Each structure stands twice: as structure tokens, then as C-alpha cells.
Amino acid sequence: MGLIKNARAEALVAGIIFAGAFACFGTATAQEPIRIGAFLSVTGPAAFLGDPEQKTLEMYVERINASGGVAGHKLQLIVYDDSGDADKARTFAKRLIEQDKVDVIVGGSTTGATMAAIPLAEQAQLPFVSLAGAVGIIEPIKKWVFKTPHTDRMACEKIFADMRARKLTKLALISGAGGFDKSMRGECLKVAGDYGVEIVADETYGAGDTDMTAQLTKIKATPGVQALLNAGFGQGPAIVTKNYKQLGLTVPLYQSHGVASKEFIKLAGDAAEGVRLPAAALLVAEILPDGDPQKPVVVAYKRDYEARYKSDVSTFGGHAYDGLMLVVDAIKRVGSADKAKVRDAIENTRGYVGTGGVVNMSATDHMGLDLSAFRMLEVRNGNWVLVK
């Protein structure tokens, strides 16, 4: 079907005939397409999230449609670029629901964009699978809202477990001003005590800051600091990492899963060496043990994405892959795009093996991942390695 131009310049609408090696979904007919809506941060400061997400959705919608569609219907993908602006995200979510009449939404690159759209999805009783990180997206449970990425709370817990294994107990925290940053900082403060971790410094930086030397100098002067954690994503963590090295800090540096792509290593350069962070198995696809149930999935996704787009894979595109496939699987199981039935089917997903982990949803868990879905990685010689 190709790309469809929307009357508004800021909207990127892709009506894409989307297929894959999914012939079992049945032969497509001239019936109405199943409409998959998305609002993503394709441009702007969060483009490192939205760009691979959009590319992933486009590629797999094409593949699914080429092999017959889902439940006798082709998929139509409708994407709007919110540029990382929560107000735009809300506007586009409203348009997807009221004008485009989508059957489900897979999107919301950032926590702020997602939170702006949640009330609309809930009111419209429309299944919404978010691609953003904050635990507040699914806690408390919203009936129609799900998410694919690991939560910020899980990232704190995985890091604190690693600190405990290294016998580190005193942590300096630094975080940005964004929705994810604030949420992760809050979650880390909540759970630190459960792991015997004491927060001995707590510094913040602004969204536009280009130097965090002042904050890191305070941290360096704080007695007893044994490790440093940056709760954030985007360019801020790369700046923190560079300033950390410039100041001669030597305590272990942790970052969040919000920087889980090669782009972080490129931005931080040599300063990234030794940085640890929790991330999905996708970043270390080829070096996973052969018996790992995720290995076939992440190796195939990585191969397909990098072959088509000639760029490094990121966990963010993987979140979009999982969101789409969870929806496709639910539609396949119920045999239609009936919104209530699809919602129920997503909630009852068990044993889905995706790029983020093995998903087991329930009425009280609209993400379905546990800490085993996170791998602790370290940057060595400019690449990711698994921490044993």
C-alpha cells in the first residue's frame, strides 16, 4: 500500500501491507484491514527510541501481510511522529482512536507520551501496548494498557543485586529531568533498602544540560561512595559517563536500560569502558548459550533488522517487535480484532518468547516479565559482554 501522506505535515502515516513467515494466519480477503495505530518519537531528542521502533513495525507488518495477514485480514499500520512531545502524543492518540478508527495501539516511545495517552485508551476501551519504561504505566493496573519493556523498578533491582554480589553498599545517584528519569530515581529510592544499599548522594541535571561536572564533583567528594548510578536515557547518560572519566572517578558506574543500544557506546566513547547496565538479551544475541530459549528469536530479529536497515539493532526496536507480535498472537487466538476479546487474549498471554524475555501476563501483571528477563551487561573493548 506504501506510505500514505497525511494532511498535517508533522504526521507520518504509514499504511503498510505487513507480512512475515506467518502463512498459518490464513489467506487475506477483501475484508477491512486490521488497523494498528502508533505514535512514536521518530524525530527529536528521543529519536533513538522511535526510529528503530517505526522501522521494526514497518518491516514486520510488510512481512505478515506478504504471507497472508492475520485472521483473514491484512494489517494497516498508521504511524504518527510525536517528536517526544507528550501533548502531540495525546493529540495523535486521539486522532488514531476517533478518526483513524484503529483496532489497537502499539506505541508510546517515552513514558511522558504514554502517560498522556492512557486516559484516552482507557476511555475508548482500546487495547494499548506501550513501548515505554516506567512502572507507573502498569501500576496500578489499567484494564486496557500493557507494556513490553522491563520497568525502571526492575532495572534498580537488577543493579542492586549486582552491587550486592560485588559487596558494594553505598551508592551515589544522579538522574535527569525526564519522566523516565524521575520515575526510575523514585523506584531506586524505594527498593534500595531491600538490597542493603544506602543512597549517600542524590544529584540531578536538566534536560538541556551539556556538562554534569558540578554534580559529579559533589559526588566525588561524598565520603564512602562505592558505586554511581545514572537513572536516565538519551544524551545525558553519555555526558555523565564522559564527565565521570574526566574527573578521574573510579567507582563502578551503572546506567539504566534506557541506554541499551550501541549509540550510547558511540556517544560516550572510551569512557564507556567498564560501564554496567541491565538490558534485554537482544544486545548479546550471538553470544547467548545455545540452549537459551530467546536465542533463536533475538538472533533472527537482529539479522533481519540489520540486513534491511544497515544499522545496529537496539532493544528499543525489540520492544516494538514484541508489542506487535503480542497483538498479532492475540488476534490470531481470538480470530478477529474484537477489542474486548483481543484485550483479554493479551492479558492471558503465557509463554510468549520475545526479545525482552519470556512473557507471562495476568490480570495483575500487564507486562509479564520478571528479573530473569534482564541480563547484566558490561562494556568491554567497545562492545557489550555478559556479566557472569
Please provide a written account of the structure.
With 388 residues, the chain is α/β, with parallel strands linked by helices. The chain folds into 2 domains: 225 residues, Response regulator (Rossmann fold, 3-Layer(aba) Sandwich); 128 residues, Rossmann fold (3-Layer(aba) Sandwich), CATH 3.40.50.2300. 37% of the residues lie in helices and 19% in strands. It has 11 helices and 16 strands. The chain has a 5-stranded parallel sheet with strand order 4-3-5-6-7, with helices on both faces. Strands 9-8-10-11 form a 4-stranded parallel sheet. Helix 1 runs parallel beside helix 10. It is globular and about 65 Å long. The chain starts with a strand and ends with a strand.
Write out key terms for the chains shown.
single chain, 388 residues, alpha/beta, Rossmann fold, four-stranded parallel beta sheet, 11 helices, disordered N terminus
Could you give a short description of this structure?
The protein starts with a strand and ends with a strand.
Which CATH architecture of the largest domain? 3-Layer(aba) Sandwich
User: What does the largest sheet look like?
Assistant: 5 strands, parallel
Q: What is the CATH class name of the largest domain?
A: Alpha Beta
Count of the domains:
2
Topology (elements, then pairings):
Elements: E1 3-5, E2 12-14, E3 34-40, H1 47-66, E4 75-81, H2 86-98, E5 104-107, H3 111-124, E6 128-130, E7 145-147, H4 152-165, E8 170-175, H5 179-191, E9 198-204, H6 213-221, E10 227-231, H7 236-246, E11 253-255, H8 262-268, E12 276-279, H9 295-309, H10 315-334, H11 339-347, E13 350-353, E14 358-360, E15 375-380, E16 383-386
